[in-house]
Structure formats: C-alpha cells, structure tokens
Design goal:
It is built from 19 helices and 20 strands. It is α+β, with helices and mostly antiparallel strands. Among the domains are: 221 residues, Multidrug efflux transporter AcrB transmembrane fold; 131 residues, no CATH class. Strands 5, 8, 9, 10, 11, 12, 13, 16 and 17 form a nine-stranded mixed beta sheet that branches. A four-stranded antiparallel beta sheet has the order 3-4-2-19. Strands 14-15-18 form a three-stranded antiparallel beta sheet. A hairpin with a 3-residue loop joins strand 3 and strand 4.
Length: 636
C-alpha cells in the first residue's frame, strides 16, 4: 500500500510541475513591458511565449470581426472557357440585378440567359449541353468554391500567426472571420481578402493602347464612339513627364470641356487635377496622363478622375474585348522638373487572356535581392514553378522576346519587365515591395493558394480592448468572491477535510488554466463563466464523498473502512453526473459557435480536472494519513 501511495504522489507531483510550467509562460508574458515585447518580436523570440500562453478571446482583448462574401460573378467568369462580348453583357446584367434585388445569383443568371436566348454550352463546353445542366453544375462549383475558400483562409491565417481565429461559414456564400488581439488590422484584412490570383500576362502592343486612348479622348470630347480615329504616329503619344506644361483644374473644369457626363462626382479631396495645358482642349483624357519611361503614368492627383473615366460603362465599351486595363500595385516616387517629388501610378493595357496562371507556382519565398540586380538590397519574392509551369513559361517567354510581361497579383501589376531571353527553368521574382513584411505576406498567400474567386468585405468591426478589460476585471472579481465563499463554506462545514477539498479546488483551477495553455485553447467571456461554474462542480464531488464517509462512520465503521466505502459508494454517482454533463459540453463544443463553444470548452476541462482532483488527489492524501497511523476519529 505504501508503494501505491508513493506512485500516486509521483503522478500528482508530475501533474503539478507540468501545470506550473505551462502557466509560467503566461505569467512571464504578462509581466513584460511593451518595449520588452517589441524587443522580443524584433528578435524573433516572441513566438516562444505566444505559442505557450493562455489565449484570450476577441471579447476580452479586442480584435477584428470581418464578414466576407464570395464574388460569384468573378467565379463564373474564371470558369468560362470562352468569353465573348455577349457573355460579359449577360454576366454584367446578372450582377447588377443580383446586387439590386438580393435574389439568388443563379436564379437571376438563369433568367438572363433565358431572356436573351443565350447558349451556355458555347462558353462552358465541359459542363453539359442544356442550360439547366450547366447552371446546376456552376452552382455545385460555387459550393465547392466556398469550401476551398474556407480552407485557404484558414491556411493563410495559420501562417500569419493569429492565435485561435474563428473562421466559419455563414449562409450560402459568406464567411465570418474573427481575429483576437490582432496588431495590424489592415495587413490582416489584405491577407484575408487577397485572392492571391497570380497571373503572367502579356502587355498589348503600344499601337493598340494608343488607339484606345485616342478613342477615349474622342468620346470625352464629342460623346461619340464611331468617330474616325486619326492615324497614329510615333510622336502621337502621351505627354512627356518633363516637357508637359501643367496647369491645375477642377473636376468641374474637366466636365465643362466634355459633352458627356462620365459620372465623376465633385469631391473636395480631388478637385485639383493637373493636365497638360497645350493638349487639354483637344485630348482631355491624354492630358491627364504622363509618360513614365516607357509606361503610362498618372499623377496621384489625377487618379480619382482617371479611375472614374475608365470605370464609366460607356468608356468600358471602348476597351477591346480581348484586353483589360490594370493598375500598378504601388505608386512610383518621381522627381519633377522643379525639384519636387510626386507619386505616379502606372496603368497597363494587357491581354484579357492569361499567359500563365499562378497555380503552377510551387515555391514562394520572401528574401532580399542580391548584389548586381535591379532589386539589390530590396525585398523580393522568389518564385519557382513545377515542370508543367516551367514548360508553359518557357514557351511564353521564347515566343514573345522583346515584349513586356506583367506579373499580376489580384489584378495589380507589380512589375512588367521586357522579355529579353527565353526562360526555361520557370524561375521568376516579384519586386517593387515596400518592406520584407509585405513580401512575407505575399509569399504566404501564394503558398496557401489562390482563392477560387475574390471575397468582398461585407462588414468589418474593430473591437477595442476596453470592454474586454472591464469584462476580465469583473470576471476575476466574481471568480475570486465565489472561490473564497466556497473555501470558507467547506472549511466551516467539513473542518479539516474541508481544507483538503479546498486544496483540491485550487489544484483544479491550476490544472484547467494549464490545460487551456497546453491545448492552445482560447479563454473568452463565456469561458470565464464556465470557469466560475467549475468552482462549484469541483467541490460537488467532495461533498458527495464526505457525506458518504459520514454515513459510514455513523454506522460504526473504522475511519479507514469508512473512507474506502465512502469513495466506492460516491464514485458511481460522481461518474454519472460528470459524464452526463461532459456529454452536454461535448455537444455544445461540436455544434456551438463562438460564446457557446468557449463556455463548453472550459466546462469540459473543469469536469476532467475535478474528477482527477476530487477523487484521485484527495484519496491519495487520505491514504497517506491512514497509512502512517490508525485514526480513531476523522474531522469531517
């Protein structure tokens, strides 16, 4: 019996040491100053603590709550194998009605197809022959896209390092994401919302681009799309950056020079446009543009107006259907003739058809450009492709030497270098990044994979930590009060045995908190409520045991016999009560969300810990006492 008791003490000691070790990281982390935390983060050592501390939920420490919706029109567009002007017309009409009425997207799509007697088989040849079959297949594809989007967002956030995020489906095409304690909401939002659709796309020939620009000029000036276009010469291009005679005008001035209202609204922050005075009257759109090397640049002050013009439905019809206009991901800082610096965004007229998709990229790594390159010392993302991607990339670069190839991520151009030689190994890189942090985020989304379609932010809330601090303080006060009341009651009612139960209660709280840390679970406000409820549950088993021991002592049994009989009689009742409560907690954890799940987690952990402390720990101490001497009476 002595050896058995020793084994019990060893088990209890090991459990206590492990629990205290798990809680050490939480206590140490909470004693650090903000400067110390920043120092650990800069040295890359903060993860050692953050991976082992008790995580606090969104309702206690603040964070961000985002509701995302899958962009179904973009999904359908990406699936289509053949894209004609009529296809885009049907899709645009469907999108407009869908957003206006809120009706089911595929019901609207079906009506538009039927009303226009449109044959989908020409555009989705591998999904059936009848329109109904194809629409049903597209609907199934959208459900699969939602499942993939959930998984990809989870993978991205896991790599981003957010502790215990909440990511769940809401409705048919929406996803709820909750990130507790997020330090950089803007970076997290970009990471989540980024489609990570990487594409390598050839730029259109300069003659085609210039023809489009002239068409826009003519339309803004005359309101007609069928006007005869002038012949394009090498000198007929956008205005040189250093040679333009700029003057400032307002948006109203621009509108006053046009016969068509292109939908530009007056905005106090965008009234001062800069145009070339010499060509403004004849070529209003070109006067907003500048040559930046061999690229088309837009002064930052003109971006608002140019975006409005290009987004106008009538202007969009002037864009050749086999092409599209993309913007640079970042502005370029350029020095003007007078010595002042100004930001310029670049626009790229590219093929609508992708030359190579990013799905062939197998490796994306953030690093710093090496010496002797244009990106020396600057953050870049190195890309490597699989064998199939390398073959496609080799053909693409070999057949288009001398042309420009844009590297596009989520419809934003990061660079568009000139293809000088055939690239057979599928190696490339992305430059033009502001920081190594941005490079790491881009590498994360590329590695995690592209979303099947963009996701739009429907709702976003940033929750401050002030409410959380109040909740924590209130929860701690209530917990301490309840804890003290239970301890006092047990001591008064059961005397020295009550102190033994109080010791088991303290161990129970330590074990629950340690398990939360070890399992990387998250403590929420409902979790605090579950922890407080655990205090009552923890002593309930001891109350049953003590009452059974009292009954056995009243029957005249010895102290040792009464203890053994009391534990044996109470065990079935304790097991039954805790198992039924545990099953309820498991059901809540499985099917509950948010607050319900947090409450169920701490409740279940409390039940497990109370079974150990109330039965195993207290019995071990009783055995130790009765082994050392024969007790005539028991203080109970």
């Amino acid at each position: 019996m002595f050896k058995k008791t020793n084994v019990r003490f060893i088990i209890i000691s090991v459990a206590i040491v492990l629990a205290l070790y798990s809680l050490y990281w939480t206590f140490a982390y909470n004693t650090f100053s903000d400067n110390k935390i920043e120092e650990l983060r800069s040295n890359g050592k903060i993860e050692k603590y953050e991976d082992r501390i008790i995580r606090v939920g969104l309702d206690l420490q603040g964070g961000m709550h985002v509701v995302l919706e899958l962009d179904l029109p973009k999904l359908i567009e990406s699936i289509a194998s053949n894209k004609t002007p009529q296809f885009y017309s049907i899709l645009n009409a469907t999108t407009e009605e869908y957003k206006k009425t809120g009706d089911d997207f595929f019901n609207v799509f079906k009506r538009q197809v039927e009303d226009n007697n449109f044959k989908l088989v020409r555009h989705f040849s591998d999904r059936g022959y009848k329109n109904s079959e194809i629409i049903s297949s597209l609907k199934d594809e959208s459900k699969d896209a939602m499942r993939r989007a959930l998984e990809i967002i989870r993978n991205r956030i896991d790599q981003f390092g957010v502790s215990e995020p909440t990511i769940q489906k809401a409705g048919q095409y929406r996803i709820i994401v909750e990130l507790a304690g997020i330090q950089d909401p803007a970076s997290a939002r970009n990471l989540i919302q980024s489609t990570a659709l990487m594409e390598f796309i050839l730029l259109k020939d300069p003659e085609v681009t210039q023809s489009f620009i002239i068409s826009v000029d003519n339309y803004l000036k005359t309101g007609r799309k069928d006007i005869e276009k002038p012949e394009i010469s090498e000198e007929d291009t956008t205005v040189e950056l250093k040679e333009s005679k700029d003057k400032a005008i307002s948006v109203n001035d621009l509108l006053g020079m046009t016969a068509v209202d292109v939908g530009i609204e007056q905005d106090s922050s965008d009234t001062a446009l800069v145009v070339d005075e010499e060509i403004f009257s004849e070529r209003p759109f070109s006067s907003l543009l500048r040559n930046v090397g061999s690229r088309i640049g837009i002064p930052e002050r003109n971006v608002y107006a140019v975006r409005k013009i290009l987004n106008d439905p009538e202007i969009r019809k002037l864009i050749p259907y086999d092409s599209k206009v993309l913007w640079s991901a970042k502005p370029k800082r350029l020095t003007m003739q007078d010595g002042k610096t100004e930001n310029y965004y670049l626009i790229y007229h590219v093929n609508r058809e992708t030359g190579l998709q990013g799905k062939y990229v197998t490796k994306a790594q953030a690093t710093v450009g090496g010496a002797g390159t244009t990106s020396a010392g600057q953050p870049i993302v190195n890309l490597n492709m699989n064998n199939e991607g390398a073959k496609i990339f080799s053909r693409l670069t070999g057949a288009n030497i001398g042309k420009n190839l844009a590297i596009v991520l989520d419809d934003k151009v990061y660079m568009a270098p000139t293809i000088k030689v055939k690239i057979p190994n599928g190696a490339s890189y992305i430059e033009g990044l502001e920081s190594i942090g941005e490079a790491k985020n881009i590498a994360i989304v590329i590695r995690a994979g592209a979303l099947p379609a963009p996701v739009d932010v429907i709702e976003e809330r940033t929750i401050g930590p002030s409410l959380g601090r109040d909740s924590i303080q209130t929860g701690i006060k209530v917990g301490i009060i309840g804890f003290l009341l239970v301890i006092v009651f047990m001591f008064i009612y059961y005397r020295l045995s009550g102190l033994l139960a109080d010791m088991a209660l303290i161990l129970n709280i330590i074990f629950v908190m340690a398990i939360l840390a070890m399992l990387r679970a998250t403590l929420t406000l409902p979790g605090l409520a579950g922890l407080i409820l655990t205090i009552g549950i923890a002593v309930d088993a001891n109350v049953l045991i003590f009452e059974r021991i009292r009954e056995e002592l009243e029957k005249g049994k010895t102290v040792r016999a009464a203890i053994e009989s009391g534990y044996a009689r109470a065990f079935i009742t304790i097991l039954d009560a805790n198992v039924t409560t545990g099953i309820t907690a498991l059901i809540l954890m499985q099917f509950g969300t948010g607050p319900v799940k947090g409450f169920a987690t701490t409740l279940l952990l409390g039940i497990i810990a109370s079974m150990f402390t109330a039965i195993f720990v207290t019995r071990t101490f009783y055995n130790y006492i009765t082994d050392r001497k024969v007790l005539r009476t028991l203080s109970i």
